[in-house]
Amino acid sequence: MKKFFMIGVALSALVAAPAMAADMRPPPPVYRAPPPVVVPIWTWTGCYIGGHVGGLWARKEIADTTLVGPFFGEADHTVNGWLGGVQAGCDYQFAGGWVIGIQSDFAWTSADSSHVSVLNPVLTIETKIEWLGSFTGRLGYAWGRFLGYVKGGGAWERDSFDVFDNVALTSFGTLDRRRYGWTVGVGGEYAFADYLSGFVEYNYYDFGTRDFAFGIGSFDISETKSVVKAGLNFRFGGFGKYPVAARY
Prior knowledge:
Layout: H1 2-23, E1 37-43, E2 46-64, E3 75-94, E4 98-116, E5 123-143, E6 146-165, E7 170-193, E8 196-214, E9 217-236, E10 240-247
Antiparallel strand pairs: 1-10, 2-3, 2-9, 3-4, 4-5, 5-6, 6-7, 7-8, 8-9
């Protein structure tokens, strides 16, 4: 009898095992959040090189300083023209959106003008701006890929001066002079590609007064000028995107 009881228990266990196995479900999968997405932002830190074109408007005030001999006369004239050149510099972004930097630029110009002497109409005075350069510091604030800035520093240019005799059809000679002064400006720049930006800016120049002497006399020329230019900068050495935050 005892044997029959043990056999019955064994058979019951065999019959119940598949049913119990069917009721045992695998545990639910553990949810794992996806890795955070690194969000890149634009930074202006780095260096650049590029080119520009623009327009130049200069005011020259010419005063005769000759006490004897043929007078050149006193007169003003405006020297207008185009310019084109290159620039290079470096910027550093800090404290959020603030950007400081330095820049050097050089441009060739086509600006020239002339006028007939007031006191001696036989003579024509001609001036020409051959090239223009500057070295400036920049301070600006960036809103992402847009940078607004102001700039200021030293400037230099080469001028050409000529006094022409309208009767004899001869020149008293051409003087080329390098002049030094200062400049201030304001502009905006936008990075529309990772390593390429475009800018538009206005600059004011003051070259003071300088004396120019010919064999027949001398005169002083004071000069100020305005320049509007637009250009492109190719950026390297740190410019572009870099990770600063993780977004889930």
